[in-house]
Structure formats: C-alpha cells, structure tokens
Design brief:
The protein is an alpha+beta fold. Among the domains are: about 10-95, Rossmann fold, CATH 3.40.50; about 610-705, no CATH class. It has 29 helices and twelve strands. The strands form five sheets. It has a four-stranded antiparallel sheet with strand order 7-12-8-9. Helix 6 packs across helix 21 (about 515-525) and helix 8 packs parallel to helix 23 (about 550-570). The longest helix has about 45 residues, at about 375-415. It starts with 10 loop residues before the first helix and ends in a 16-residue tail after the last helix.
C-alpha cells in the first residue's frame, strides 16, 4: 500500500478494494495468509497514514509492515516473515509423500508438440498427456519427477529452440536493408558512398540469411514430425496459384515502371506544382486502398488465450492493411529515386503515416456504412498520441547510446587506441590472414556486447574496421571498405546472440520459457550461417554485388541461395533424411565451393603473374583496360615507421603502357635494382590510391587469362546431386520429401 498519499489519500480504502477484487476472482484467495506492506514510509508526510494503518490492521489481527526501498528499513524483516509464511502454507497444503510411487514405463512415441497460446506455450502429445494424468499434482516428489520426465522427453530443448528461432530472426532484422537498425544511414557518412550503394551491397547477404533461417525452421519441423496449420483459403490447383502469383508480380512490376517513368515525365512539366499533384495522387491511392479493404469485414483482435487452428484467409488480411505499405513506399522512393537525405526521407514517410493514423478509422467506417465520426476521430488521435509517446521513449535509449558511443569514438581518434588494437591483432595473428579476421570477429563480439544497433556499429567501425584495412593491406587482402564495415557490423550484432550477455537471447527466453544461456547457444548455432557470411564476402565480393552486371547478379543470387540452403542442411544434419557425418561434411564443402569457387581455381591456376617493377609499362600494356594490378609497396607510414603494404591499381585508359603510366600520374626512377616513386601528380589516380614520394615498388602482380572461377560450381553441384541420391535411397516410401519447397511441413 502506498503510504505517501500522493496518488490516493486513504490506504485503508485501497486495501479494502484489493480484498474485494481478490474475493471476486476466487473465494479461496480470502483464506490465504497475507502480509500488508506499507511503502514509501521514509517520506515525512507518511507518518499519519502509517500510524493509522498500524492501528487498523492490529484491530483486524493482520500483519502490517512498514518498509522503505530508499533507506532499506523493514526489508529484511519482510523477507523473513514472507519465507516463514510460505513454509507454513506449503506444509498445510502439501500432503506427505506416499511411501511408494509406481512408475509407469511407456513405450517411446512421437516428440511433444510445442504451440504458442497467448502468453504461454502449450505442450501436447499422447505420451505427455498420459504422464500428466498419472501424476499426483499435490505431491512435491511427483511434480519433481514430472519435471525430470519432461526434460527427458525434450520439452526444455524444444522451448529453447523456439526461443532461439526468435533470436536468430531478430538479429537478421538488424542486417536487412533498407534500415539495418539505422546503421545504413551511418555507413553513408562513414564510408562516403550513396545510400543506394549501401542497400545494394548489403541486400543479398541479408536476404539469403533470412531464406536459410526459414529453411532451418522447416528442417526442425520435419525432424519433430510437425505439420502446418490448415489453410482457410479455398483450395486451388497449383497451376492456378502460379498463374495468380505471376499475374500479381507482373502487375506490380508494370505499376512500378509506370510510376517511375510517369513521375519522371510529369515532374519537369508540373514544375513547382509537382509536390501538390503527387500528394493528391497519393491521397487518391490511399483512399482507394481503404475502400478496397472495406469490402471485407474489419479484422478482429486475436484472443491470446485461444489456440490457433487455421491460418487466416490471405486476401482479406492483406487488403485490410495494404494502405500501411504506402509510408514504406514513400521512404524507399525518397531515398533511392529522389536521392533525398535519410532525415528528409524519414520526415515525408512519417508525415504520411500520421495522416493515415488520423484518417483510416473514419474513412474505413464510412465505407462500411457504420461511421461514428466523433469516436473514430478520438481513437485516431489516441493512436497517434500513443505512437508518439512510444517513439519518444524508444529514442531515449538510442540517443543516450549514440552519445555515449561518440565518447568512445572521440577517445579513439584522440588517443590512438585503434593503432594499439591493430598492433594487438597483428601480434596475435602472426601475419596469418585468416587468424587476423577471426581475432577481429572476436573483438567485434566483445565490443558489441550490450549495445543497441546504432551504437554497436559506431563502436566496431571506429575501432576494428581500420584494423582489417591496415593489416589486410600489409598481407595482400585488398577489399572494398563496405565489405570491411559489413564484416565488423555483422559480428557486432552477433553479440546480442552469444552468451553470457546475449540480450536478445534473454528476451526470447523470457517469452519462450527456456533457459537463457542454452537459448543463446542454440541461437548461435542457428546463426552460424550469419557468422559465415562475412568471411565469405570478404574473399568473394561478388556476394555484395560489387562490379557485377545484372545478369551476373541474378546468377550469383540463385547460386548463393542454393549454397546457403546446403550450408543450413549441413549444420542441421538433415537434408532428405538424417545425414551421416560424412554427408554433412560434404554438404559444407559443397556450400563453400558455391560461395567461394575462386579458392579451388586459385589452387589449380595462379590468378596473377609476377612482373619485375622495372617492367611496369609493359605490364600496363599487356592487361586490359579496367582490370587491376596488385602492387607491393615498401615505404613509411604517417609517423615515419617502415611498413609494407599492397595497393590495387586500376588500369587507366591509354594506347600503350607509357600512356597509361602517365595517365596514372606516376613517375618512377631506377636506383640500382630498386624501382622508386619519383613524382606523384597532384590530384591524380596514383595520389588517390596512396602512392607517395620515395616509396619502393617491390613486386607487381598482373592478372593472367584463365578459366572463369564459376566452372568450379559444376563439381560442387555434382557432389550435391550424389548426396541427394544417397539420401533418397534411404528414404522410406511413406516419408515426404524435405527439400526446400518439396514438403507440406512448415
């Protein structure tokens, strides 16, 4: 009871109201022992209420204790009194254990089913239900025995897997464009490329990671013998489904092209009136979508306590909320077509969202013929207010975290701790490139612990991205800056999964009822595909769609998706049936081959030919325009320390090697057998690349003609077909196929 009198004047009336509510909830609650606790008793104005309460409850024969959470007065006494009453109540209601408990040994049956019902999880299964029926639920030993039996049946493991899926999907949401937890907007500033390029490079890895997570859930469902919910849609032949899907896709593409080119044609004609006309057209589309959704009954809130037996119908569900996609369309349009700043784009999307929140209820009710204008407007205003309050509260944590992370970034830039980290990784990795990347990934996990997405990216990009760039150049690893930033960002985000911090794992365990630490380990196991991706796109930047054509990009998407599904099957130990250990190893090898075909091609044929530095003009003359030379450079760093590093030099336009060298802006001299940089033209390509006076060119590596690395996909796919054949021969005739897209399981 609040003794301060700030919210209510009379704590006795509060007590009587609580007793009345308990009585109406269940008569047996009135018989339970109780302790009345008065709080905030350290405040001066509480003395009168405390004395009044002591006198009242003393007459009633009830226990009253006054405590203060500020000073700690009375807290220990309250704990002791509570423990005594709990022990007394337990002895009163729990009978003594029976002398003999008969244990029924049941034959093994199917795994238990785990189903979410409201705020709890429902465990079903014939064996589970029989065990519960035979358990004396008033006996402590019997309940403990039941708990052990449920653990042996794998109920705990299933709950942890349910929570792990939630963790893995939430982490994937942080790496999926267009927002990426606001990190995408920071990458624009930090890397110096456009927002469209950030989205293009980050999209494919995030998409295939999501597809693999869906497939992992599918495999877990297959292994558990689970089936999907019954669809409430009218049955349709597969051909009609495909025709409907393709028709919708073609219409959407045609609409997108029409809007894109139509607005591009109208904006110059309309001039200053373009914004007004586009706003009116958007309002017409919004009203039309509301009218389309109003042709179906309004969706009702689900009862959280009732089980879900069938899936809702697709058409009414989609059409009833289709207008909510308009702010997302406006956001993406402003960012990727109009090329507005992220802040201005978010502003226009938010303005449209506010308009929708205020008007959707009155308009939908009017179209359905059941309008209550005053009530609908009030509910719209209330929705807007609640949204603004929630948004402001969420931004508090982000703002504080970003400001705090700014302190770390400032400390790094002023103290040079980043150089110390680079030295630490260099010493521990001993020049090994893969070990350097692994150490950087571990440090990203450590630095990202407990940080929200935005602050996470700021910290890991400031501290660890320069480490990969610096040490990579020294060891011949030259990758685009976006690949480096995505590498550290992925592992910084993985800190939300990995124990012991794993904030996302703790949150998911609270929902699923599983153990947080084991949920975290299971989630990390599910997220192995996300942890493998950064290593893959560091060595194969095609996965980031860097310098690839549209057709090549489509091919990479298809092959990368297949590779990620094969990787998921290998880590889960299941493809069509349970995989044998060597089949899982081969599946992982196939996935690696599809992701990184250049590894095997490099073993078969060296991709570069060493050219003496004195013959740089001949090397530039032999290679094609637009290709790259790799040059090993020896010189001094910014503080005068000697260092050796690699530069990737694009071959400029020119009729011969001498012209290309001149176009590069580089003049060289020979000092004995050494080739030194004599002059770097200001503002030239060589100056931008980092060439400087008196640097020595140690080695030049020129690309050679060889087979395309994609030829290595063929043996990898042949091995995959062989594994399918082996598992298909072990498949029982009654079992459904479990390849992606070939199963009725969900």
């Amino acid at each position: 009871l609040d003794m301060s009198g700030i919210e209510r004047d009379d704590p006795i009336k509060d007590y009587e109201k609580i007793r009345q509510e308990l009585s109406s909830y269940g008569a047996s609650l009135e018989e339970r022992p109780e302790i009345i606790v008065g709080t905030k008793t350290d405040l001066p104005q509480c003395a009168e209420n405390v004395e009044k309460a002591k006198a009242f409850f003393s007459r009633e024969g009830r226990i009253f204790m006054a405590i203060s959470s500020v000073t700690g007065d009375g807290v220990d006494s309250l704990l002791y009194e509570t423990a005594a009453l709990v022990a007394q109540a337990r002895r009163a209601i729990v009978p003594k254990a029976k002398k003999a408990v008969k244990v029924y040994k049941l034959r093994e049956s199917e795994e238990p089913g785990i189903e979410r019902t409201g705020k709890a999880w429902k465990v079903t299964g014939a064996k589970i239900e029989r065990i519960v029926r035979m358990t004396d639920l008033l006996n402590e030993e019997a309940i403990d025995h039941l708990r052990l039996r449920l653990e042996r049946l794998g109920v705990d493991e299933r709950l942890e897997k349910a929570g792990a899926v939630e963790v893995a999907s939430s982490v994937n949401g942080q790496i999926m464009p267009p927002v990426m937890g606001a990190a995408a907007f920071l990458m624009v500033e930090y890397i110096g490329i456009s927002y469209v390029e950030v989205i293009k490079h980050a999209f494919l890895p995030a998409l295939i990671s999501y597809i693999a997570l869906v497939y992992i859930v599918h495999l877990e469902a297959v292994k558990a013998g689970m089936t999907g919910l019954q669809s409430s849609n009218p049955p349709r032949p597969f051909v009609r489904k495909m025709i409907g899907f393709l028709t919708g896709l073609i219409l959407l593409m045609a609409l997108s092209f029409g809007v894109y080119y139509g607005l591009g044609w109208l904006k110059p004609i309309l001039g200053d009136n373009a914004l007004l006309v586009i706003s009116l057209a958007l309002a017409v589309v919004y009203v039309g979508l509301l009218w389309l959704g109003s042709r179906y009954p309004a969706l009702e809130m689900d009862d959280p306590d009732s089980p879900v037996l069938t899936l809702p119908q697709t058409r009414p569900t989609v059409l009833s909320g289709l207008h909510f996609i308009l702010p997302v369309v406006v956001l993406i349009w402003c960012l990727m077509v109009e090329r507005l700043s992220p802040g201005l784009s978010a502003f226009w999307a938010t303005v449209l969202m506010i308009f929708i929140i205020l008007t959707q209820r009155p308009l939908s009710a009017m179209f359905r013929g059941s309008s209550k204008l005053g009530s609908d407007i009030y509910h719209g205003l209330d929705d807007l207010w609640q949204g603004l309050v929630t948004g402001a509260r969420n931004m508090i944590g982000i703002g504080i975290a970003t400001a705090t992370a700014g302190i770390i970034v400032g400390a790094v830039s002023q103290t040079g701790v980043g150089l110390v980290l680079a030295d630490l990784v260099e010493i521990l990795s001993m020049g090994n490139l893969m070990l350097m990347l692994i150490l950087t990934a571990v440090l990203s996990l450590i630095l990202g612990m407990g940080l929200p997405t935005t602050a996470n990216y700021i910290v890991v990009s400031a501290l660890l991205a320069p480490v990969i760039v610096t040490l990579g150049q020294q060891n011949g690893l030259i990758v685009p800056l976006i690949a480096v930033h995505l590498f550290v960002f992925y592992f910084g985000i993985m800190a939300d999964v990995t124990p012991p911090v794993g904030l996302a794992s703790f949150a998911a365990a609270a929902v699923s009822g599983g153990d947080p630490i084991r949920t975290g380990f299971q989630a990390f196991y599910y997220s192995l595909r996300t942890a493998a991706l950064p290593f893959l796109f560091i060595f194969n930047t095609d996965l980031l769609l860097i310098d690839v054509s549209f057709a090549h990009g489509v091919l990479i998407f298809i092959v990368a998706t297949v590779a990620m599904l094969i990787f998921a099957a290998g880590t889960q130990g299941w493809l069509i049936v349970k995989s044998r250990w060597y089949e899982s190893v081969l599946l992982l090898l196939v996935a690696f081959t599809l992701f990184r075909p250049g590894f095997w091609m490099d073993l078969a044929h060296d991709p570069y030919q060493s050219v003496p530095p004195a013959q740089i003009a001949q090397a530039l003359d032999r290679v094609d325009e637009g290709s790259n030379l790799r040059m090993q450079i020896r010189g001094l760093d910014a503080i005068g320390e000697p260092r050796t590093f690699y530069l990737l030099v694009p071959v400029p336009d020119g009729a011969n090697g001498e012209e290309r060298l001149q176009e590069l802006g580089l003049e060289l001299i020979q000092d004995g057998d050494r080739t030194l940089v004599d002059l770097v033209t200001y503002g030239s390509l060589a100056a931008d690349l980092g060439f400087d006076f008196d640097q020595e060119i140690v080695e030049i590596l020129a690309p050679v003609d060889r087979w395309a690395k994609e030829w290595m996909w063929i043996p990898g796919l042949l091995v995959f077909v062989l594994i399918i054949g082996l598992q298909w021969s072990r498949r029982r005739p009654s079992e459904p196929a479990t390849l992606p897209g070939g199963s009725a399981h969900v």
